[in-house]
Amino acid sequence: VQVVQSGGGLLQPGESLPVACVVSGLPFLLYDIAWYRQAPEKQRELVSSTDSNTDYADSVKGRFTISRDNARNTAYLQMNSLRPEDTAVYYCKLDRLYWKSYWGQGTQVTVSS
């Protein structure tokens, strides 16, 4: 199983950035997708998930969008109107009840003027 993230980088406040998570070696369609982030010296927090409903952390509602392309085994997190407080390492996670979970390697997103 491989869960490979791409995207990330240094952005200015207000800019947009997509991050992607390409999955191989498992039945992608059967897994729920979630995106987490971890800022320096903070706990990892849930940003968005697609289990029974699509949910977003209050801090990103209206700015971030989670999506998936099952034909390409890829999950996306589109981040708009980025803020300095969005600076973190972003992780995708694949979940299915009673099955093993899988994490991507993490993608650094830095928002600074």
Can you describe this structure?
A hairpin with a 6-residue loop joins strand 4 (32-38) and strand 5. The chain starts with a strand and ends with a strand. Strands 2, 4, 5, 6, 9, 10 and 11 form a seven-stranded mixed sheet that branches. The protein has a four-stranded antiparallel sheet with strand order 1-3-8-7, with no helix packed on it. With 113 residues, the protein is mainly beta. The mean pLDDT is 95. It is globular, with a radius of gyration of 13 Å. The protein has strands spanning 2-6, 9-11, 17-24, 32-38, 45-50, 54-56, 64-69, 74-79, 88-95, 102-103, 107-111.
Instruction: Give the N-to-C terminal Cα separation.
Output: 38 Å
User: Mean pLDDT, nearest integer?
Assistant: 95
Task: Give the DSSP E fraction (strand runs of 2 or more residues).
Answer: over 45%
Shape: globular
**What structural class should be given to the helix and strand makeup?**
mainly beta
What pattern of helices and strands is seen along the backbone? EEEEEEEEEEE
Radius of gyration: 13 Å
- Summed up, the helix count is 0
| Low-pLDDT ranges | none
Compute the number of strand runs. 11
Share of helix among residues? under 10%
- Biggest beta sheet summary: 7 strands, mixed
